[in-house]
């Protein structure tokens, strides 16, 4: 089943944005005009890494059930398989996006052992950082340079210039990440740390474990205290987050026409298709088949 789960490739993303490919496994998106409407109204997974640099505007975006309010001067680092759901474009946005596959990163690294220096590669969660003005300016210049070399890869030393441009950008992002990492860990409260642990536990178990008690026992807390902490940090209780994980996965699976609703019901461990349909309609206000027709 996992092989059949629909993911958005770089080309899928380009199609939604109305743009064309540049080079294999790498794409640099630079807003030519502000984004007013949501190009991805439904949750999805991508098979690539993405670096987003927010230049103007704002949006509410959910990554793996955690909601982020993106603002100007934010950088967002998104790993493959992260479940992304754009909730709302609050004000028209201008941004730069660099999207690439792991294969591209490995084949265009100056020193393969140095790929391990890019610690954000290994993260399963999106990372949102606020940048200083000079950091934003530096990254924008490097993104434009990479875009230029990516669209002129057939020139003399084209691949070499592309590789060096890519590494310049990656090392700059890595430097910012390293500078902020200790600060992020220090500032993370016990409640935020607990929420992060819960989300990780939920991602690994939500298809088979839907009882609040399973999660509270694994985190050595009472069910009531766990729900209170999660509500304070994320705005949702334990039960609501469990339901959200199931619904989000159902939406992703329903976007794949190769899967029948019965198969999706089985994959999510519902006792039967009817029970899955009632559960889905309760949360989305559409039946699974109605939702599929709309996507």
From TrEMBL:
Residue span(s) of domain HTH araC/xylS-type: 196-294
Keywords from the named record: DNA-binding, Transcription, Transcription regulation
SMART domains in alphabetical order: HTH_ARAC (SM00342)
Protein's name in the database: AraC family transcriptional regulator
